[in-house]
Amino acid sequence: TIAIAFVQGSVQSGTGTSTPVGISGQAMVAKDLIVLYMGMDGGATGLVTGVTDSAGNTYNQVAGMDIANSGGTLSLDCWYTVVTNAGAGVAISVAFKDTLTNMDVVCQRFNGFTNTATLDKFQHSSNVSSTTVTSGATATTTQAVELVVGGGVYASTATTYTLGSGYTNLTQNNIAARGTGMESKVVAATA
């Protein structure tokens, strides 16, 4: 039985072209999964140019998750890595194409993966009209035990997300006129 577990959540706000994201308090362990959502002003795709860390792990962008809302004011992107280079005090850095005045990064770390994590399914929505974010129906997962992660960005000075049904971990950050949030859960059967 695979025992996937949430380890910690981290948040960071920034401006400019690079934002460091601290994974503090615990060492990054081999085969941990790191998932990051970046919420930004700008309303364009392609704003995140890369994610790196001081241990040299390789981060992958979730293809199709670099989205902008229809109003052209907000952007959301998602990147992840399975840790191959472990270490204490590893610093993650997110690089941006343009100088941005407002960006949020939310990060969650998980352990319990026995193989290289692969992206099974994804679904997104660019709805930014409320803090009740839904991606709509997602195709059936293929493994008996899978991690499900959701993220969103919302234009509000007082954004507070509420966990979706069955989700157990909420990490959120609010700056200026925007909030970014991520939730996660483990499903024990194909869903």
Give an overview in words.
With 191 residues, this protein is mostly beta strands. Helices cover 0% and strands 49% of the residues. It is built from no helices and 10 strands.
Task: Briefly summarize what is shown.
The chain has 191 residues and is mostly beta strands. The chain has strands spanning 5-22, 33-41, 48-53, 60-61, 67-68, 74-82, 91-111, 146-154, 169-175, 178-187.
Please tag this protein with its features:
seven-stranded antiparallel beta sheet, mainly beta, 191 residues, three-stranded antiparallel beta sheet
What's the arrangement of secondary structure elements?
Blueprint: E1 5-22, E2 33-41, E3 48-53, E4 60-61, E5 67-68, E6 74-82, E7 91-111, E8 146-154, E9 169-175, E10 178-187
Antiparallel strand pairs: 1-7, 2-6, 2-7, 3-7, 4-6, 5-6, 8-10, 9-10
pLDDT averaged over residues: 78
**Would you identify the regions where 5 or more consecutive residues have pLDDT less than 50?**
none
Number of E strands: 10
User: What structural category arises from helix and sheet content?
Assistant: mainly beta
Q: How many helices in DSSP terms?
A: 0
Q: Whole-number radius of gyration?
A: 16 Å
Query: What is the terminal-to-terminal distance?
Result: 18 Å
What is the H-and-E element order?
EEEEEEEEEE
The helix fraction, in percent, is: under 10%
Report the sheet-strand fraction: over 45%
